[in-house]
């Protein structure tokens, strides 16, 4: 087996964490040109192999899962508590079984009907012809969706509680992207961002505990039934109701709107009449703009990726963004071509790593797709849209993929406008 090209450098002075987290796409692309799609660097003081090839990512997630652990515990455990993100081995398998049963039970809740109701209510609030920030709008919409589905929260009947939870989830989120120091500033009443996140976490857990005690149906009740202890149920509900999920939705939906703003009206209408076209649009958005750049793993037993030996003790970072744009798999990888998916088999969707992959892939993928299809189908039915000109629509990639600026979009009700066949919506 060959040695991985690149260099881990020396501890501290050779660490590239700042450069990577500043712009992970540019970091990876520069080194692909230097070393190829698998290369060595040093991130978070640990020798780290980057896997930016499609076949390498498939091997890592599918073939090497028994030799690697998830690499998030040191970064996020204090903020999220004990949940499936920080478990490995038999514990992870047991949790996947429990959560799989919970999502299976959720199929009896007629969630699609509830999702459509909430989506249509939110879209009704959009004022035709006025500008709005797409990302902020979708984050608000999907926050309400997640809190309604996972906590049985009624935003109309419990407005103050809903506002409190939304505020707490924002503060809690900031702990993920801050320096993990739980400190109070001397001689002041100020605390660090991380400390505030931990305080928000405890308040959120109090609310979740109340919901677990009070609710006799839906996700809170399923959590009580399937988990042996209330703490584990609460920690997993904290994960499901945190800002992490709405931000991922907002990322994908914003990318959908930006990518399709230049499409002719009839092309988008076809996505309503033809489910395969809607699938193709969403798959292509996921391919080009995955909400998270990839994932981190810790190697506990030597592994082989594309002929390269990655030794025990190293970290591995796979880049979904780079793997999705691997020219060995996707022709014209930097072009938005939804039709590339129309002739592919259903199993070809596994070529995407938007929600991870292999035995540790996201358990809620089907629910995610249901929500995405509901929002996009309803938007196309009700509106046409265009991006205001002369805006910076370049992306930043951390902590989620989204435009750098608050890109403004104008939605117009379909019945309020007419189009020539050559007019762009």
Structure description:
There is one protein chain. This protein has 425 residues and is an alpha+beta fold. Helices cover 49% and strands 12% of the residues. It contains 16 helices and 12 strands. It has helices at residues 17-22, 24-35, 54-63, 73-80, 89-106, 111-124, 134-151, 159-174, 193-214, 218-226, 230-241, 244-260, 265-273, 275-288, 320-324, 365-382; strands spanning 38-43, 46-51, 68-70, 131-133, 294-299, 303-305, 308-310, 315-319, 383-387, 395-396, 402-403, 408-413. The strands form 4 sheets. The protein has a 5-stranded mixed beta sheet with strand order 1-2-8-5-3. Strands 4-12-9 form a 3-stranded antiparallel beta sheet. Strands 6-7 form a two-stranded antiparallel ribbon. β1 (38-43) and β2 form a beta hairpin. α6 runs antiparallel to α7, α8 (159-174) packs across α9 and α10 runs antiparallel to α11 (230-241). The protein is globular, with a radius of gyration of 22 Å. The chain starts with 16 loop residues before the first helix and ends in a 12-residue tail after the last strand. Mean pLDDT is 91; it is low at 181-189 and 416-425.
